[in-house]
């Protein structure tokens, strides 16, 4: 069962809409809820692209807040700087989380390989122990001073 919503904006700016089944608002709300994380990530990425790097953003904040210039900065400008800093912080945290998850995956893979290697070595030691044990038994069974082939 699929719900379809169609929005068309003409060149003159007139809005046309169509929806099947559910009304348009319900369809768009459902879409927004299902894709909120994707949309948030895209929004954070687009906001972070407004500044080439976080360093440039920090330089901008510093230049706005220099002691001699503080009295000339508007509240709106400070709020906007705060929002940009929060966005940059969110992007940084998301990147850190992504890197940490990759590190955990790599460590799990390394653990798996080490466990496999440990099993191989343990089985080789078990085989060697059996061979050494058999040789010891044979030496104990042979009369002293005689070497048996």
From TrEMBL:
GO terms for molecular function: DNA binding; DNA-binding transcription factor activity; protein dimerization activity. GO terms for cellular component: nucleus. Residues 41-131 form the K-box domain. Pfam families: K-box (PF01486). This is Flowering locus C. It comes from Capsella bursa-pastoris. The gene is FLC.
